[in-house]
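Title: Prediction job returns without error message
Component: structure pipeline
Severity: low
Priority: P3
Assignee: unassigned

Description:
Job completed but the reporter wants confirmation the result is attached to the right record. Sequence as submitted:
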Amino acid sequence: MLPLVTLVWLIIIVLGIWMFHTEKKLRVENISSQISLINSRIIAAYDSNTDPSDFLDFIKDYYRQNPVYDDIRMSVYHTGTLIYQIGEPIQVPDTRDLKTGGVASMGDIQFDTNESRRESNFYYDVIQSRDRKLLVYTMLPFSPEVVAASSASKSIYVILISVAILATFIALAIAHRIGKNISMLRDFAMRAGSDPTFVPSMAFPRDEIGDIARQIVKFYNERSTSIIKLKREHKVAMHALEEKTRLKRELTNNINHELKTPIGVIKGYLDTINEHPDMDEESRRHFMQKVGEHVNRLTQLLDDISSITRLEYGSKMINTEPVNFHEIAFQAVSDLETSGIMGQMIFNYDIPVDCQVIGNSGLLLAMINNLAKNSAAYSKGTECNLILTDKDDEYLHFAFYDDGIGVKESSLPHLFERFFREDSGRSRKKGGTGLGLCIVQNTIEALGGTITASNREGGGLLFRFTLKRYIPNS
């Protein structure tokens, strides 16, 4: 504020000094021009052979009525002889050293010997006719009235002081407004730097600094929101990482547990055979048959673990292409009937011949086989069905269901978990690995679809899943 006010006062002072001298100069030039005009009119009348007496009488009467010019003096000489005068006669010893007009001091021009006043300065003008016979002297001594008329008006000081005071108040108001904005911005910066939970609520004025402050607050809020979002995303990522680590650890533990059972059984049968070399052939054949069954179960378990690993960690590397899902279903039914895995259960399917999906033939075939094997092993039903239920612009909707006993409602959320068995003892006896439905879910999700499980109202288990629809380019 102080530099601003100082600058304003300095400008006003300089302007005042300039105005004072300019007005004074104009007033002096005005008086000088009045005197010069009188002399010029007299010389002009003389040059045109006109009697200047009437004009001189007019000048004498006119200026006597003006308090500024009432002491004007004039002497008109013709060939050195005084022919007309106003006031005391003016005697000039040598006019060569005298300028034609302006302001002079005593000593440049002498009054007659009867002059008793001694004015120190005066206005004057000296002019000659072209034939150098007529010489006119005019002077105006510095009386108080002349001095006042030659000086700048005091109203200038009043105006300048008024302007200076007004400018000071304006500067104070501007400084106060700017200072208030800066103070609010400083408080915001200090609180924002010390309090990470600070939420700004300042109402900045509608001016340039206010606009800048609001923009800074906007950047601060966006930064705070970004930090909160990053922290939240980091927390979610850490939770996902921890969950992934937990699942890996759980998978490892489950795999170890699941591998121990067939390996232990295999080892037990082989040890028994080795410890009894004289075992009869029928018992030996029975034991070797059991070893083969558990070797097959171990092989199936390792294959299933490999499939899950490939689906979970290499889903982006799975090759997909247009696949006729009707043909996949037909091949699955044919393979299942040939293998005899379905037993007495009938597998029906109702899929349109031109049902095209985006998928992988091997994975889709394995998925249908796993669903069918699960129904055959655990549903206790007589048939299972695979049908197309709906379609939209992006997906085809399918349903796989059986007419069996279904599962407990509490078991539904866990059906797709690794190694989950509703009845673990009976499931192992049936040769299941506990990974079939997990492979089904991972297959569907790797191909961009979804799958859910629920109990049917009429009995049995219902799986609803979607696959991406293939639409040929027109």
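Comment from assignee: result matches the submitted record. The chain has a mean pLDDT of 78.
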